Amino acid sequence: MNTLPAPIRALLKLVTPPAELPYLLDDLSEEFNIRSRTTTHPRATFWLYSQTTRSLGPLAMARLRARRAERATLTSGDPMLTQLHDDLRYSFRVAARRPWLSLTIIATMALGVGTTTAVFSIVDALLLRPLSFPAPEQLVRLASPVPDAPAAMVVSVPDVTDLQRTSHSIASLGFYDARTVAGQVGAEPERLGAVLAGPGFGETLALRPALGRLFQPDEYLETGPSPVILTHAFWASHFAGHHDVIGQSMTISGKPRTIVGVLPPLESAYPAGVYPSGDFDIWLPLVIPESSFLRDRVVMQLSAIARLRTGVTLERANTELAAFARGLAIEYPGTNTNRTLQAVPLRDTIVGPVRPMLLLLAAAVGAVLLIACANLGSLLLAHSQSRVREFAVRSAMGAASSRIARQLLVESLALAAMGGIGGIWLANTLVKGLVAVYPTQLPRANEIGLDARVLIVALGATLLAGWLAGMPLARQVRRLDLSRDLREIERGLGSRRRRHVLDGLVVGQVATSVALLFAAGVLLRTFLDMTAINPGFDARNLLTFDIAISSQPYPTPERQSAFYDALFDSLRTTAGVQDVGWGMFTPLAGGGWGDTFVREGTADAAPNLPAMQVKMVSPGYASALRIPLLAGRPIERKDRTGTPDVALVNAALAARYYAGTSPVGKRITFQKRTLEIVGVIGDIRSQSLWTPPSPELYVPIEQWGWRGGTVFLRTTAELHSAEASVRKIVRSLDPLIPTLNVRPFDERVRRSMAPERFRAILVGTLASLALLLSVLGIYGLVAWVVGRRTREIGIRMALGEAASRVRVHILADALRLGGLGILLGAVLAYGSAHYLRAFVAGSVRARDPLMLAATMLILLLVTAAAAWLPARRASRVDPLLAIRAE
Amino acid sequence: MPKARLGELELLVMLALVHLGHDAYGISIRQEIERRSGHDVAIGAVYATLARLQEKRFVVPWLSDPLPVRGGRARKHWELTPLGERALKSAATSLAGMLEGLGLTPEPRRS
User: Helix H segments across A98-229?
Assistant: First the structure.
C-alpha cells in the first residue's frame, strides 16, 4: 500500500526512470511503513526524506543513462535491423499459423510475378535492348513504298545507287536479299538459308568476321571467284568449329564455292525481319549482272540497309530521302511517279511486327498482376478482422500504430518475397514455353532469357505486389480505433471502413476482369471467324513439298523442263495421286511479285497502269488446289518456252479491269512481253486468310523459267506412304536434289492461323486467370461478411425472417458490388478497345457490343455463383448456435 | 570477454543478491546491505546500481506474483546471471588475493 507523502512522490517521479517508478515507490513505502511501526513517526519520516534526497542523484543519473541508451537504439542502424528481424520472425510465425491462407497468397504472388517477369523478359529482349551491332541506332532499312504496297521493304537498285552517290546523310549502304539454296557439306544435300550480300552490306552492319574476311570487290562480279561465308552457328554445327575451314570448298546449288570467312557469333547478325523464317546458314555475294532485270528502275526486289552518318537524325535523313524521291519522280516519271523513299530504323523492321502483340501481352499480364494484388489485399484485410484483438493487445502494450503497420507490411512483403522466388522459377519455365509456342519464330528469340535486368524487374514486381497487397491493411491499422473496433467485433459487425476498402478492391477486380475477358472474347471471335473463311481452295488431301534444282546440272530450260516432266509423270502415276501441280507461290503465304500491265487496245499509261500480283504456276496447279476454272482453259503442258505467252487471271482481276466483258482472248503487255489471257479462275486468299483477294495474274512457270517452288500433290494415300514415294521418286531422278518440308497442306493452313490462335489462347488464359481470381475475391468477401454477421443473421431468423429472404439479401448485396464493377469494367473495356484494333479483322469489331453484353452477363452470373455458397450457408444458420457462438 | 571491473556498490548489491536468493528486490537488497555492511545505502542508489548491472548483463529482473493483499502489486525481483556470477567470483578472488596475509579480515559484524 502506497502511503508516501505527495512531495516525496512528486520529487521521485521527476528523476526516476518511468519504468522503475512504481517499484521504487512500493519499496520505499514498504520500509517506511515498517519503520513507522518499529520507531517513532518523525524518525521514520526523517529516514524517508533522507533516503529520498540521497536517491535523487543516482536516480537522475540512471534516468539520463536510460534515456541516452534509448536514443542510441532509436538512431543507430542496428536496432532497426533487429526490429526487422523480429518482424520477419513474427511474420513467419503468423504465416505458419494459417498455412492455407499463406499458401494461397504465395501461389497467387508466384503466378502474378512469374507471368509479369516472363513477359517482361520477352518484351525487354525484343523491344528494349539495343541490337547487337556496333552503333545499332544508326542502322536503317531503305524502303520505297508505293500506293499498292505501302508496307513493302524493297527498293529499286538504280534508285538507291543514285541515292548513294548524292546523299549527305547516309554513310554507307548495301543491298541484300535472301534465298533458299541446296547445299552439300556431307553426304546428303540440304536446304540452306542464304543471305545474298551486296557490296557494302557487311561493312554497313560493321561486322568483323570471326575467321577470314568478308567478300572482296571482285567477288561481286559475274566473272569473279565463287566464295561463301559461313555463319557462326553453321560453322559450329557443320565444321565442328575447326579453324582450318578457310579455303575449304563446299558445293552450293551444284557449284563449288570457297569458304573465305566465318561470321561472328551475333545471332541477330542477319536482318531477319525481311524473311521471318530467317535462320541463315551462309552468305553468298549478291551478283547483279549488267543485263539483270534487277538493274531495271521499275523492278523493286532487293532490300537495302544503310548506316546514317554520325549525328544525322532519322528525321533529317527522311527529309533528304523524300526530296531525293521527288527529284527521281521528275526525272523518271514513267517509273517513279508516286514512289517515295524512306529510312526505317532496323530495329523497327525486326521487331515491329510483333510489337503490338507484345504490348497486348504486357497489358494483359499487368492487369492480372493488379488483380492478384487486389485479391491479396482484400484477403489480408478480411483476415485482419480476426487479428483486431492482437493489434489491440500490442497497441496497449505500447506499440505505436506505425509500428504495427510496418509489421503488417513486412508480413505481406515476406509472403510476396516467397511468391517472388516461386515466380522467378515459374518465369523461367514460362519464357521457354512462350518462345516455343509462339506461332512464328520470334525475332531475337535466342536473346530472351532471365538476366540481371529481368531479375531486377522481378524483384520490383515482387516488392510492388507485396506493398500493394499489404498497403490497404497497413493504412487501416494506422487509423486504428481500438475501442471502436473491439466494440464492433463484440457486436459482430465488420469495421465499416474496412468494408469500404474491401468493396473497392472487389469492384476493381471485377472491372479489370470484365476488360480482360472482353478482350479475350474479341480475339476468340476473330479466330473463330477466321476458321470460317473460305480460302478459295481445298486444303484437304493435299500434300506439299518444296523442291529446287540447281543451274549446274540443268543449265538450259529444256533440261529443266525435262526434269519436271519426268517428275510429274512419275508422281501422277503413283498410287492414290489425283492431281499434281507446282508453283513459285503458296496460297496464304504470299509469293510472286507486284507489277503493272497494259491492256491491249486501251489508253493505259503510266502512272495509272493497272496493277496486279504475278504468280508463276505449272499446268495442273489450279486443279490440284481445286481452284475452280470460271472461263476459258487452264494452263497446259503445251504452254512452254517457244510457244505464245499465255496467262490466267483471277475473278478479281477480271472484275476490276474487264468489267462486263470476258477477259478470255484479250491480250496484255507486261515485262515487255505480250500475253494472251486464256482463262479465268476463282479468287483465293493468297497473302493470308484476312487479305481479301486482289487482281492476280497466273503465268506458266515454264515460260518464265524459274527453277524451284512448291509442289502440290492431291492424293488419297496416307501421308507417310505418300511422303516415302515422293522421296523415292525424286531420288531416283536425281539423288542430289533435296526434297523438303513434305507436309499436308492443311497443316500449313493451320499454321497460318497460328498467330490468331496464339493470341486467343494466351489472352483467354490470362482472362480465365483473372476471372478465377475475381471469383475468389468475391467469394472471400461475401464469406467474410457472412461470417461477421452470423450473429445478426441468427437474431433476424430467430425473429422470424425467412431463410430465402436472408439469401436474397446477401446475394443482392454481392450483386450490387459486382454490378458496379461490371459497369466500370464495361467502360474500361470500351475505352481500351482501340488497342485491340491491330488484332481484329474480318467482320469482328474491336468494340463489339454483343461481346460486351455477353461478357457482362458472364461476370454477373459468376458473381452470383460466387456469392451463392456463402449466402446459402447464411440461410442455414441455426439461430441458437449463431447467438451462442459469439 | 574483457573483465568488467565492479564498483564498490555494485559488488555490495551483487553480494546481497547472493545472500537473499529468491527474495532479492529493491528494499530487501538495501536492507541486506545495511545489515551486513553497516552502510545506509539510499534506495535510489540501489536502483541505479541495478540498472547499471543490468546493462552489463550481470543481473536480470523477474516479476513476482502480485502480493496477496488488496491492490497488491508484483514486485520486481533480481537475480544474478551466469555472467554476473563469474564476474562476482573473479572480483572476490582478486579481493581475497589482495587481503591475504594482511591480517585485515575482521570478524563479521553481528547486528
Answer: 99-123, 157-166, 201-205
What residue type is assigned to position A40 of the chain? T
Complex confidence, ipTM: 0.87
What CA dihedral angle connects A790, A793, A799 and A804, to 10 degrees? -130
Q: How far apart are the first and last CA of chain B?
A: 39
Cell numbers representing residue A430 in the block: 514460362
Residue closest to A795 by CA, chosen among A688, A697, A884, A687 = A884
Average pLDDT over residues B61-85: 81
Question: Quick check: A130 pLDDT over 60?
Answer: yes
Integer Cα distance of A435 and A144 in angstroms: 32
Instruction: State pLDDT tens for residues A212-257.
Output: 898 988 888 888 888 999 888 788 888 888 888 898 888 887 788 9
Nearest CA in chain A to B52: A62
Q: Which of A171-180, A527-536, A619-628 holds the top average pLDDT?
A: A619-628
Task: Give the pLDDT band of residue A747 (cuts 50, 70, 90).
Answer: confident
Q: Look at residue A227 and give its three-state secondary structure.
A: strand
Segment among A398-402, A642-646, A833-837 with least mean pLDDT: A398-402
Q: Does B47 contact A24 at a Cβ distance shorter than 8 Å?
A: yes
To probe the interface with B, which of A27, A68, A73 has the most B CB atoms within 10 Å?
Answer: A27
DSSP A23: H
The whole-chain average pLDDT of chain A stands at 80
Higher-pLDDT residue of A810, A843? A810
Q: What is the pLDDT of residue B32?
A: 92
Q: Give the CA distances from residue A83 to residues A77, A161, A406, A698, in Å, rounded to whole numbers and listed in that order.
A: 10, 72, 10, 80
pLDDT in tens, A106-120: 888 888 888 888 878
Q: How far apart are the first and last CA of chain A?
A: 39
- CA distances from residue A544 to A309, A548, A582, B66 in whole angstroms, order as listed: 47, 14, 9, 95
Backbone angles phi, psi at A527, to 5 degrees: -65, -45
Residue B49 contacts A where some CB pair is shorter than 8 Å: yes
The DSSP code for A645 is: P
With H, G, I as helix, E, B as strand and everything else as coil, classify residue A94: helix
pTM for the model stands at 0.59
| A-chain residues near B76 (CB < 8 A) | 20, 23
Coil, strand, or helix at residue A211? strand
User: Chain A partners of B52 at a C-beta cutoff of 8 Å?
Assistant: 62, 65
Q: What are phi and psi of A276, to 5 degrees?
A: -55, -25
- For residue A270, pLDDT beyond 50: no
Testing the interface with B: which of A4, A12, A26, A52 to mutate, by most B Cβ within 10 A? A26
* Residue A218 DSSP code: G
- Chain B closest-CA separation from residue A7 CA (Å): 16
Is the Cβ pair B45, A28 closer than 8 Å? no
Tell me which chain A residues have a C-beta less than 8 angstroms from the C-beta of B45: 54-55, 58
Distance of CA A267 to the CA centre of its chain: 21
Q: Report the phi/psi class of residue A553: left, alpha or beta, with left for phi > 0 and alpha for psi in -120 to 50.
A: alpha
Asked whether the predicted pLDDT for residue B89 surpasses 80, the reply is yes
Determine whether the interchain pair A27/B43 forms a contact, defined as Cβ–Cβ distance below 8 Å.
yes
On the 0-12 / 13-18 / 19+ scale of CB atoms within 10 A, B60 is middle
The separation between CA A156 and the C-alpha centre of its own chain, rounded to angstroms, equals 34
pLDDT of residue B18: 92
Name every chain B residue with its beta carbon within 8 A of the beta carbon of A69: 55
Q: Which residues of A touch B43 (CB under 8 A)?
A: 24, 27-28, 31, 51, 55
Cis? peptide before A607, omega within 30° of 0: yes
Spatial distance between the Cα atoms of A558 and A200, rounded to a whole number of angstroms: 37
Residue of A nearest to B41 (CA): A51
